Amino acid sequence: MVLLVGLRSWSTNIYAITPGNATNVAPLVSVKGLGTDPHRDRIMLVDVFLQPLSQLQYLYMKIFTNHVEFLSANQLLEPGIPASQLVAQGFLQMSDSQTAAKVAALRALGWKVPATSAGAVVTGVVDNTPASRAGLSVGDEIIAIDGHAVTSSCSLVGALVHVAPDTKLSLTVLPGKFSATGVLTRSRAVHIAVTTAVSPNASTATNCAQFPTAGPSWLGIAPEDGLDYALPGSITLNTANIGGPSAGLAMTLTLIDTLSRGSLTGGRVIATTGTIDSSGNIGAIGGAAEKTIAVENAGAHYFFVPQGDYAAAKSTANASLHVIGVSTLSQVLADLRKLRGAAPVPYSAPH
Question: Which of 111, 99, 15, 24 is nearest to 57 (CA)?
């Protein structure tokens, strides 16, 4: 008994991914200001359950549980970022995924959706750094440093590349806040004082062509580009309590189906997983095998997955589940037409 109590209270840095749910996206969509089809196809997003494990839970699942994938915290988080930020990171990924899905769907239907650079969004804050001490958090958007505009993550790198350590800076920030269910809102700009620290990775390579190496100081954040899109109408996706980016393809297809005439899937129930960007490129996801089990439990017979996850999904699927590997939205739409789905014709005339 003492051993069991000890194992139960002994935390690990191991997480378990287990099959989640397959959820019909159509009831989660609300559209105002654009024409919509009263008939909605059944297109399901697929999620997994992610949970941290005690030593007892790990041993139990390792021995007795099927269809589980184990990951270390290092596989889920960038170095130095605490596990306490995982939920917020998942909600930010879902928020980004919703935006990309709306843009990709509208562009596939012929809309011109212009984008405006909007700052550098914080995706993670390293412990015990200038950013953490200043109170920056996941979802905050940095729009200026010392009054000079920041328009992207590379713009942020450029603003810091020649700044010496122990320099006091004033950041202009749009604070981000997540609701209990994951909705991101930002409040009016505030000014936050920070003092830069010595970078642990000075002169290392960046992803920025103009600034190929990092400078001598840092703030201690992981940034991404902030983008604003001019969208027609009002589109809302209610993905309460679902985090991560892998519902992107399912949301995109559901929006195309909602905003166009006819049945996109030819009346078939389909499930999908995969990230999507605003140009319609589909990216790999985690937990493909566990998501395949969730799809089978939901009774779907067609499962669209990123090409890179095809092998894992196919090797898990039973004989009645057709797994289709895809890499672009246009390829998915072409595959759906082979299943007798209709070519999308938008209700509202695009412009």
Answer: 15
CA gap 78, 222 in Å, rounded:
8
Contacts of residue 228, Cβ cutoff 8 Å, sequence gap at least 6: 115, 116, 118
Residue with tokens 């939901």: 298
Number of neighbours of residue 261 by Cβ within 10 angstroms: 15
Q: What is the DSSP-derived secondary structure letter of residue 350?
A: P
Task: Provide CB contacts within 8 A for 199, sequence distance 6+.
Answer: 165, 214, 215, 216, 217, 218
Closest to 104 measured CA to CA, from 243, 233, 275: 275
Helix H or strand E segment including 166: none
CA–CA separation, 239 and 59 (whole Å): 33
DSSP per-residue letters across 178-197: E-TT--EEE-S-EEEEEE-E
pLDDT reported for residue 203: 66
Average pLDDT over residues 290-308: 96
Helix (H, G, I), strand (E, B) or coil at 86: helix
Tell me the average pLDDT across 272-277.
98
How many other CB atoms are found less than 10 A from the CB of residue 121?
Answer: 27
Length of the chain: 351
- The CA-based dihedral angle spanning residues 167, 172, 174, 178, taken in that order and rounded to the nearest 10 degrees: 20
Q: Decide: residue 192, CB within 10 A, 0-12 exposed, 13-18 middle, 19+ buried.
A: middle
* Domains of the chain by start residue, with CATH: 2-81+101-113+232-346 (3.30.230), 115-228 (2.30.42.10)
22 in Cβ contact with 292 (< 8 Å)? no
pLDDT at 304 > cutoff 60: yes
pLDDT at residue 9, rounded to an integer: 56
- Count the Cβ atoms, other than its own, within 10 Å of residue 279: 11
